[in-house]
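== Polypeptide entry ==
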Amino acid sequence: MEANQRERAPQHQLKATVLLLSMTVSLALWGLAFDWTFAAALVAVLLVHELGHALAMRVLGWKDMSMFFVPFVGAVVTGRTGEVPAWKQTLVLLAGPLPGLLAGSAALLYPPDGAAALPWWDEVAFLAVTVNLFNLLPITPLDGGRLVEIALFSRWPRLRLVFAAISVAGLGGLAWWLESMPLGAVALLLALALPHEWRAAKLEADADGSADGGRSLAQLCDQVQQRFSGLGLPRQLALVQSVQLRRRVRPPRRWESVATLLILAAAYTATLPLLKQAWPHHRAEDLEADARTPAQVAFDIAWDEYDMLSDDNAPADAKLRARQAALAADDLRHVDMQVLQAQALRHPERRLAIEALLEAGRDGERWELGDVLQAELDTLAHAAGQANAKERAVVLGDAIAWAERAAPTRFAPTVRTRLLWAEALDQAGDTPRAQALLAELTQRTLTADDCQCELREVVRARAWFALSHRQADQAIAVLEEPRFRDNLQQGEGRLAIDYAWALLLAGQTDRGLAVMRLAAVVKARPGRHDDAARRGAAPPEHVRNPLDLAFALSRAGRDDEARALLGQHHGRWHCTAAARGWLGYPIREPWQGERWRHLQETASRLCPTGHAAPS
């Protein structure tokens, strides 16, 4: 095998293909898992890292080199060499992380003029420091672990085996702390390889004690066959190769070991403070998370895991409760747990538990009491959604009466339920009372709503109340109130779409279509990771309400344009939603039944085959 490898012709084209293919796959997977800026920066940092190894190997005599990427793990460069002194192997290992570490540190400390305008500068510099410093951790198979192994344990195979076992434990602990499945997989593979390491260490120890120093390949093969005949030829061959690779690196002299350890210590001493200083600047949104205690971080991670599960979440629940036990007594996360436990109860026990939370008057870290009250009212409204109008009016009226007793000062969270109550009263035949309730809500939201969020809900409900009673002109007048006129002209928010509907149903088709085009089509806001913004291109347009726009186009006699719109990606999704009855929210908006009927009819006529709603 050694002779065949030496005589084999170079396979440069194959190696280049493997490198490009593995790099492309890694870039795609990292981009899908995170974002494309991060993926491109990470691939660039890893490529420079491995090129450093490759350049040092080429200069110092390695041959037949290959490089490839491993998605979610990193990249690898391999090569062949004869016997080399320890200092050469050390230089090859350091040539990967040190250049990236130095370049990243310089980029963070001394950014050029205009670097703030380059979204990728900070990303690449920070990753260069983080990835390369991580790579110098004293854990095998990282470069730092291999350096420590050469410097301290190359003369004592059994100690190297102990170090390998410690590395597996350390890598496993790191994977658990970072919650990294790829690192955990690597740790598992290394743990499975420990029996192989034990056999290799035993062979090395026996060879070192032999008369000729165990340098004969033939003698090594004999020893493997005698000691481990039950392994089979492939595993025996792997043992021979492992021992041969280690023998090729001569044991270091004392000054080489000291120099290697000093370089590692210097890299960490110089770079860790810089990394600590750069972290908040690099991830401003993590400043709050940086201030959390380890117990809070563990609880928040467990909460997110629990929140993502919908079925069979008993293990996640147990883990969450265990993390809660480690929190300080005054931590607001205890309130979040009380909310979670209350919401798991059935009515009326759930209502009593929520009343106790409202009486305590203490917001949680994630749950504010206003949101708790609104969530409970939404639950009650959703449960009453299938009842007839009279029964629904009774249930919603009782819910509002309970909310006024339990939280008399919290009006805003009750607005949506009050509007649904007014709709139920109207549909039950008590239209005057519904109108009086709408007028009352308008006055209260005018004085109690600083951001006008609830006022907008009330105005929209008033407009659709008028539309449901075939009073389109009245709906237009409601929406054209001066405080909202700018929103209508700029096509912002739901009010503009409601305005377009009012115009269309009033017979003002051309004007309604123009407003709907403006309201239903939005441009993505350029963000930090927005590729179009970095290229200087206009942000892409996105149709957020394709069925509404298709209805307007159909009213204007433009069915072909509406079909083309619904044949696009977002249009097909909304067609599927219409076919499956997903158009409305779980708590539907009051008085918009006519709108949903129009949208269903539009989907039935104009959606592509396979996506159309049933007629």
